[in-house]
Amino acid sequence: xxxxxxxxxxxxxxxxxxxxxxxxxxxxxxxxxxxxxxxxxxxxxxxxxxxxxxxxxxxxxxxxxxxxxxxxxxxxxxxxxxxxxxxxxxxxxxxxxxxxxxxxxxxxxxxxxxxxxxxxxxxxxxxxxxxxxxxxxxxxxxxxxxxxxxxxxxxxxxxxxxxxxxxxxxxxxxxxxxxxxxxxxxxxxxxxxxxxxxxxxxxxxxxxxxxxxxxxxxxxxxxxxxxxxxxxxxxxxxxxxxxxxxxxxxxxxxxxxxxxxxxxxxxxxxxxxxxxxxxxxxxxxxxxxxxxxxxxxxxxxxxxxxxxxxxxxxxxxxxxxxxxxxxxxxxxxxxxxxxxxxxxxxxxxxxxxxxxxxxxxxxxxxxxxxxxxxxxxxxxxxxxxxxxxxxxxxxxxxxxxxxxxxxxxxxxxxxxxxxxxxxxxxxxxxxxxxxxxxxxxxx
Length: 443
Hints:
Helix content: 10-25%
Oligomer: single chain
Radius of gyration: 36 Å
Distance between the termini: 109 Å
Strand order of the largest sheet: 1-3-4-5-6-7-8-9-10-11-12-13-14-15-16-17
CATH superfamily: Porin
Number of domains: 1
CATH architecture: Beta Barrel
CATH topology: Porin
Structural class: alpha+beta
Strand content: over 45%
Number of strands: 17
């Protein structure tokens, strides 16, 4: 076969190309294999690095979850302390008043021998109670808190220990919902007793608290509570106490009181909520003196209480508008002697109040409280427990301005009719300011 080329240059080019093709193709194949090998190595390194990063992220998430469980405040404490790496959160509450009374001498609450704290307070400018609080998680099983109140009595500044307690945390080994609290605290009796006075909606406490609990019951003791595993909130509990604080007094055995309670509540739709509770406190009074010092009660005191609280957010946002209705009823049975005179009577007291927040920083409120007295034994006529035919009562109105959750200024006006024919008109200007760590208030 004869092959001819019209152009000799084309023939030469074709020959050169045929001669060089095998080496070029071989080199191209080698380069492709090297590139693929490098890509595979990069992919393997990337996947390995990604797996290591995912492992580290999961470890960090697990550690954060564990730490959150350790530092979470227990349910229903009323204080939400932030994680501070187990260092105490320190807070200070400044509470001052300017008060004016129409009567220079404080009227007695006819029919009742009250304690020192049950009086109306000082007239003029005064510092009510300055509270210093230390709170922290002790470890992953216990939480602790101490509150010292600095008060002025008889011209001298004194430090009173209001609370010093420890409390179990979730994960402490107790059944879910179960909690133990031990030390000195404002125990669960009625609605107001658990909270400090500066958290109240009024500048003073209603008559039943002044008469039956000397404003607040915070004896030394131990209390347990259990939140039931139900869809609706339900809690039961009780405690045992030393028996030194009013209405007890002069404990000898160191086990002079006990309590029990049950309460439940829930939501109504998206903008309403409610709670109701029942409580009892039994106390031994070995020696309980009244503020005047003229009477000493020795015997047994049984106090029963019930409370109801209802809240409504008309706009669905409680920060802007809120209506709060609240009331408590108390009944006391006492069996013993006043200055060796037999005393076996039943008395009762109650209050109702309403507070309306009509703007984020502004609220108004009204409260009525009343005491129902008992018949006076002949041997006690003319003493503090002799009420005659009178039932003490108090009318109160207030307005306050809350610039932030840390500061509030309040104006309040009272008409107290505590003794027959003796009315006391009272006006208060109060400020409550919080510095440092500030716990959330309970419902």
